[in-house]
Design a protein that fits this description.
- The structure is a single chain.
- The chain is an alpha/beta fold.
- It folds into two domains: 3-274, Alpha-Beta Barrel (TIM Barrel), CATH 3.20.20.70; 283-343.
- Helices cover 47% and strands 13% of the residues.
- The protein is built from 18 helices and eleven strands.
- It has helices at residues 3-9, 26-34, 47-51, 55-62, 65-68, 82-95, 109-112, 124-136, 152-157, 164-169, 178-184, 210-223, 239-248, 266-274, 283-300, 305-317, 323-330, 336-344; strands at residues 14-17, 40-41, 45-46, 73-78, 99-104, 142-147, 149-151, 175-177, 192-196, 229-233, 253-256.
- Helix 2 (26-34) packs antiparallel against helix 15 (283-300), helix 11 (178-184) runs parallel beside helix 12 (210-223) and helix 16 packs antiparallel against helix 17.
- The longest helix has 18 residues, at 283-300.
- It is globular and about 60 Å long.
- Bound molecules: flavin mononucleotide.
- The site of flavin mononucleotide has 23 residues, from loops.
Length: 346
């Protein structure tokens, strides 16, 4: 039984950190795991780079090694060339990841301009082939992450073409939705689907569309023979937003992205609060988390760690009373000693 099924079978909501480009490196994943995340996702990685076994990428992925053995660590890949996904899946398995996630939701310009991420929705037969090739080349569980929809107009505006067969297949002729996608791939044994409950046009803010997600949940239950796990993502930052998702959808799991910035303890916090236990993080607890995070990052990235950690420190300390004073120090940190200096000043 794969880890997604095991989590699903516990009948208790599980928590995942999110794939976050520029953020979810080894150190971030480790700190999330230590603070309650049941599954972590790497930053999205290019399927072409995996296909060609780019030295730079393999080195980056080897950074995750320390956490691969005893944790659920999912490698997220993006691209659109179905053939390359098979080889990429083999490389992911060789490296020791627990699962492979296919990015069908990213709206970033640099990603969609070549037809990747959410723009894959313009050709559902190709998405089918991408997933099938991945599944055929690995014994790892395969998952997908997607959005609720993308308008046909947005595809055209981005100088891409809506595939003719997809156009004939979709229910609402103005958009391709997660429901179309799931109906297209229902005979493929994917293990998990993460739905970011916003459309391409909404990007990263705005209301979550519960109605369409509930329809997607029905399709996963009724039309897939293995009932893949359902994860909801979007706007979960505290107990109130989590309750809303549980009340409206009751998914198997939730994924937290921006809500974990500077707050990797959000996973333990929400787990405690779901059991009506109070959760308090003291200044000393926070300092220890920051210290550990910095230690993991500086150890795994011999060069450039200070630049990455400045961003995290700004997130960690943004609510401090003396943040303005701290900010000027944060943006000059160079090493672990300068992180320690900052920790003395709050
Ligand atoms: C800085 C940043 C980087 C992201 N990188 C990825 C990525 O690599 N892959 C992906 O599927 N989504 C990526 N996302 C989207 C998030 O995983 C998530 O779907 C989105 O932020 C909504 O969740 P939230 O409301 O909890 O923040 C990224 C988002 C942000 C803000």
């Amino acid at each position: 039984m794969n880890f997604w099924k095991e989590l699903q079978n516990k009948n208790k909501i599980f928590f995942t950190s999110a794939p976050l480009d520029g953020v979810s490196d080894f150190a971030f994943c480790k700190i999330c795991l230590e603070n309650g995340a049941d599954v972590v996702f790497t930053e999205m990685k290019s399927v072409s780079d995996l296909y060609f076994k780019s030295k730079k990428l393999i080195k980056e992925l080897e950074e995750y090694k320390e956490i691969l053995k005893d944790n659920n660590v999912v490698l997220q890949i993006y691209g659109h060339d179905a053939e390359k996904f098979g080889k990429a899946a083999q490389v992911a398995e060789e490296l020791g990841f627990s699962g492979i996630d296919i990015n069908l939701g990213c709206p970033a310009k640099g990603v969609i301009s070549s037809g990747n991420g959410v723009m894959n929705m313009r050709d559902l037969d190709n998405v089918y082939n991408i997933i099938k090739n991945t599944l055929d080349n690995t014994s790892l569980p395969v998952s997908i992450k997607t959005r609720i929809s993308i308008n046909v107009e947005s595809i055209i505006k981005n100088q891409l073409i809506l595939d003719k067969k997809t156009s004939d297949f979709i229910e609402d002729k103005d958009k391709v939705t997660v429901l179309d996608l799931l109906r297209k791939i229902k005979d493929l044994p994917i293990s998990c689907v993460t739905i970011h409950g916003r459309s391409f046009e909404q990007l990263f803010s705005g209301e979550i569309d519960y109605e369409i997600i509930n329809k997607a949940k029905e399709i996963l239950k009724a039309e897939f023979s293995n009932s893949p796990a359902l994860i909801i993502n979007g706007g979960i930052k505290d107990k109130e937003s989590l309750d809303k998702v549980i009340e409206n959808i009751n998914p198997d799991g939730v994924m937290i992205a921006t809500g974990s910035f500077g707050k990797p303890f959000i996973f333990n916090q929400l787990k405690a609060e779901l059991e009506n236990k109070s959760y308090k993080i003291t200044n000393d607890d926070l300092k220890q988390i920051i210290r550990n995070h910095a230690k993991y990052l500086f150890k795994s990235k011999p060069t450039g760690a200070h630049l990455v950690f400045r961003k995290h420190l700004l997130w960690y300390l943004k609510d401090c009373d003396n943040f303005n004073e701290l900010r000027s120090k944060i943006i000059t940190i160079k090493d672990l000693d300068s992180v320690e200096e900052i920790l003395k000043s709050f």
